[in-house]
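Workshop exercise sheet. Pairs work together: one partner reads the sequence aloud, the other fills in the structure field after running the prediction. Swap roles for the next sheet.
Pair: D.N. / O.F.
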Amino acid sequence: MTRARGAATLTWLISLAALGQEPARPERLYLGSGALVGSTRVTALGGAYAGIAEGADGMATNLAVLAHRSPKLDRSWDYDFTLSWLNLPVRSTRASDLENEGVRTDAERNSQVLAGLMLQYRRFGLGTYFRTSSQSYCATDPCSPSDLITIHLSRIALAGGLAVEKDQLIIGLGVYTADAVFEYQGEDWHYAGSGLELDFLFRPKGQRFRLGASFKPQVVAGFSARVGQTPSIAGRPIFSAVISPGTLSVGASVRFGAGAESYNRLSPAAQRELPARLGEIEARPAPSDIPAGRWLLSAQADLIAPAADALSIHAFTSAFRDQVNPVGNAIYVAPRLGLEHDTIVGWLRTRLGTFLEPSAFPSGSARPHATGGLELYLLHFLTDWSASASFDVAKRYADFGVSVGFWH
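Structure field:
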């Protein structure tokens, strides 16, 4: 396989030389995990959400949310959506190190968006989410708006979910895609690649715990050159591909307090399905509105696989491009921990969390984050609404968020 790839690369370089074009650099651009982006709940819990897997805001963590029905659901169908926007003033403060490189970013602008939509019908679910990071760098010095190179790095998934064994086991399967677009003076350069993602959630009936796991494959997005397009921007050779490392996330959540054994109770809609689907009736089904324990503890570990021949974006943007070292060539572990409390049942939830962010850079080191937030019930209008806030702070990094959403 290595010889075949080398032969293909050699053929491509010879073709470019025949056309009189400068070849792309042989290394791949490393698409790391980056900053924690998600709903205020996911952020406040330090990203420890694979073992909770509730609502559309959990799609990027565990696709099993697609068929995981709310315990209050009293109809055969449901929907949910999420939208998170991280827009840090990196140019004005230079206070953000988004990739844990050890230094502040040199980007002129940086924004990250996570959006998702899911639909449920009985035991089935279908949904999609995308996460996009947009960064702008100066192509010349002094810099002007027309000389900005903007780079969009995206992860997109289109997936389905299925609940089996009385909704105790939920499986999510989808196409996981990594994309990149470089933009400069009205022209763009594209990369695209995909793989299969497989996730699951185990929520045993009558137990106060859940187990979840998510496997995202390594994806190599190749450069899709148009006819006559030169693989360089402003005299800088672009990458031959973009690589998103494979990631395995395993997590668990546990409820404590009165009613914790109803953590995994069936929704009223699922209870009505049981006689027709399984030929049995739930004995004394748990009411859908009782509190399922006032404490929720969640833990998760992300294992990030090594990526060969990978460089950071600074290999393209830095003035010292030839001196940039390889990144992402080891196994990294990111442990996460979150705690949620129903401080005033039905009205107020408070949250705290932490996680250890690894560094894919040779000179970097893991840095701890402190996270937290709260959620306040607002009113009932068609559905239950809430307002929430979150924070995520670490060395050379700070993020504060507010949102309005559904009270689950």
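Discussion prompt: The chain has one domain: 28-338. What would you look at next?
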